[in-house]
Design a protein that fits this description.
- The structure holds 2 protein chains of 2 kinds.
- Chain A is built from 6 helices and 7 strands.
- By secondary structure, chain A is α/β, with parallel strands linked by helices.
- Chain A has a 7-stranded mixed beta sheet.
- In chain A, helix 4 links the parallel strand 3 and strand 4.
- In chain A, helix 2 packs across helix 3.
- Chain A is globular.
- By secondary structure, chain B is an alpha/beta fold.
- Chain B folds into 2 domains: 264 residues, Aconitase, domain 3 (2-Layer Sandwich); 149 residues, Aconitase, domain 3.
- Chain B contains 15 helices and 19 strands.
- In chain B, the strands form 5 sheets. Chain B has a 7-stranded mixed beta sheet, sandwiched between helices.
- In chain B, helix 2 crosses helix 5 and helix 12 runs parallel beside helix 15.
- The chains are: A alpha/beta, B alpha/beta.
- At the A-B interface, helix 4 and helix 6 of A face helix 2, helix 3 and helix 5 of B.
Chain lengths: 185, 431
């Protein structure tokens, strides 16, 4: 597990549902074929209304052109991130697009579980609202040991909630890896 | 300290005397359900992680309903059904309900109830967020992703955080213009789409127990729209009757203790609730039908696990009888059994199916269809700037297809009344 993650932030609002993260029409692609998998990256966050894509200005698509990889590796959300469907394709799509960490005030349960158990992205809760303080494109450093993030643009530091009971699963890299390390499977 | 019904069921599944909210525990799963969208990736993860020794923990407890993308020419979607068929064949899965056969059922959450997988006191996990629907049968049911499902498939176990419970009590006799959909939209407007995150939503009160099983399923179905882990309604005579009619008599009934601890409690008098809608683009964007009355529509949609049950069609047919729809209106029975019931049930000697056809509705085959948009050839899918009123569960941007469309969620009565006028209409105008 990386202890320091540095990347450009992509900032979103509240209630980013899984239909916005990966629209249902794209759920037909194979998740195990490496070429088809790229489609998930390509369509990641493609249903976020364009005026709300990449805050505060908006109008910034997460993925450029035909690419399947985003220049942003840290997604900053508000409350209830990942609400809606149980589709694990949502954190998968973010991972394929290159996202390593999501930082939001709160998460919907299934998205949170999927992120942790599938080992796709680390879902951190921030202790205070940050999607109105960080701007899309800001370089952010996530310090896993200190449970904090630093905005390299201005040096601001924000506290994250410790991952708690799920830390072991995140550290192992997912539910199966965790179960193997504990001898459960 | 007493326990809630949810805590009691999860205590049993965790093989413990007591549990308390916040405990992270490994629990035994009674039934695992999957479908064509999440089944193939679940199977792929299971094969990859368990490798050569991959074994299904209990074949009898695995249920597979292809239901999402069925009537489409999309080759990738059809490939997913092929993968399920091959898997069912390779591993001899008895509870597989194949497309194009007599066994095809339609939408999983309704088929689970019809086929007798919803059993009080048991624990059901499904790769679909609306798995919470089954909680109408006094059981614990919730949605998970593919990795969790693959883990269950191999072990029969999963970790779960014991949820706090919220209690919603409805009292009073249900007026003829209200349905369960209005009650859940009322709650969603009050607590928001994250108002019950990681919590159990328990529904109680005389109004709830006056509802049919299918109407109760509308309430538990939309628990996820408030972020709820599960929705649950205790067993009563109506539950027992439904179950005995499909041959299920052996189950354990759990009830909340009078001193059980709740996160919060809400009380409603149904006589004070009006027909409601959720305006674009969120299920908690509640308003009264009266306030948005007159909004011009381009499509009406009655279908899905939420609003495509026989009870929903009875409500709609009652209003549409002898009338013509003014906008394109889709009737999508959730299950093939319901589609058959539409042919058999009558109002004044006319079958529900004939009522819909004579009023100008388009009747589609049973599946999830346009509730979640789906492939571009999905019937009823929203296009361009469609303005839709629908009995489905979500109106997120792009959910029913077009990102530019506007979707209002409402009861089958409100959708039927609106179909007749071509604009959002309070059903009381026709009752």
């Amino acid at each position: 597990m990386e202890k320091k993650i540095i990347g450009k932030a992509y900032v979103l609002g509240d209630n980013i549902d899984t239909d916005q993260i990966i629209p249902a029409e794209h759920l037909v692609y194979s998740t195990s074929d490496p070429e088809e998998l790229k489609k998930y990256g390509h369509f990641a966050l493609s249903s976020v209304p364009i005026e709300k894509a990449g805050l505060p200005e908006g109008g910034k698509p997460f993925i450029q052109g035909d690419d399947y990889h985003s220049e942003y590796s840290i997604v900053i959300g508000g409350s209830n991130f990942g609400c809606g469907s149980s589709r694990e394709h949502a954190p998968l799509a973010l991972q394929v697009a290159g996202v390593k960490v999501v930082i939001a005030e709160s998460y919907a349960r299934i998205f949170y579980r999927n992120s942790v158990d599938g080992g796709f992205v680390i879902p951190y809760e921030c202790q205070s609202k940050v999607n109105d303080k960080i701007r899309t494109g800001d370089v952010i450093e996530v310090d896993v040991d200190k449970n904090e993030i630093t905005n390299h643009e201005n040096g601001s530091v924000y506290k994250l909630n410790p991952l708690g009971d799920v830390f072991q699963i995140v550290e192992a890299g997912g539910l199966f890896e965790y179960a193997r390390t504990t001898g459960m499977i | 300290m007493g326990m809630t019904i949810t805590e009691k069921i999860l205590a049993k599944a965790a093989r413990r005397e007591n549990v308390k909210a916040g405990d992270n525990l490994w629990i035994d799963v009674d039934v695992l359900m999957t479908h064509d969208v999440c089944g193939p990736p679940t199977i792929a993860i299971w094969k990859k992680e368990f490798g050569e020794k991959a074994k299904i923990w209990d074949k009898e407890k695995l249920v597979i309903f292809p239901d999402h993308y069925i009537f489409t020419k999309n080759p990738h979607a059809n490939r997913n059904v092929d993968i399920l068929r091959q898997f069912a064949n390779d591993y001899d899965i008895k509870n597989y309900y194949d497309v194009g056969t007599e066994r095809y059922k339609g939408v999983c959450h309704i088929a689970l109830a019809e086929e007798g997988y919803d059993v009080p006191g048991t624990v059901l996990f499904g790769t679909d967020s609306h798995t919470c629907t089954s909680g109408a049968f006094g059981m614990f049911a919730t949605g998970v992703g593919n990795t969790d499902a693959a883990f269950i498939l191999g072990t029969g176990k999963i970790w779960e955080k014991i949820p706090e419970s919220m209690k919603f009590t409805f009292n009073g006799k249900m007026p003829n213009y209200l349905t369960a959909k209005d009650l859940i939209l009322q709650i969603l407007g009050d607590i928001g789409t994250d108002g019950a995150t990681y919590r159990a939503m328990e529904f109680d009160g005389e109004s709830i127990f006056s509802l049919s099983m299918f109407e109760r399923m509308t309430l538990t179905n939309m628990a996820i729209e408030a972020g709820g882990m599960n929705g649950i309604i205790a067993v009563d005579e109506a539950t027992k009757k439904y179950l005995s009619e499909i041959g299920i008599t052996d189950y354990k009934i759990f009830e909340s203790d009078s001193d059980a601890k709740y996160h919060s409690t809400y009380k409603y008098d149904v006589s004070k609730i009006e027909p409601l809608v959720a305006k674009p683009h969120s299920p908690d964007n509640r308003d009264t039908v009266r306030n948005v009355q007159g909004t011009k529509l381009t499509k009406c949609y009655i279908g899905s696990c939420t609003g495509g049950k026989i009870t929903d069609f009875r409500y709609a047919a009652g209003l549409l009888f002898g009338k013509q729809v003014k906008v394109t209106t889709f009737i999508v029975p959730a299950s093939t059994a319901i589609a058959k019931q539409l042919e058999e049930e009558t109002i004044s000697g006319v079958s529900l199916k004939d009522i819909f056809e004579k009023s100008g509705c388009i009747i589609a085959e049973s599946s999830c269809a346009a509730c979640l948009g789906g492939p571009s050839d999905t019937i009823g899918r929203s296009v361009d700037g469609d303005v839709v009123i629908s009995t489905t569960n979500r109106n997120f941007p792009g959910r029913m297809g077009s990102k530019k469309s506007q979707v209002y969620l409402a009861s089958p009565l409100t959708v039927a009344a609106s179909a007749i006028t071509g604009k959002i209409t309070d059903p009381r105008e026709f009752l």
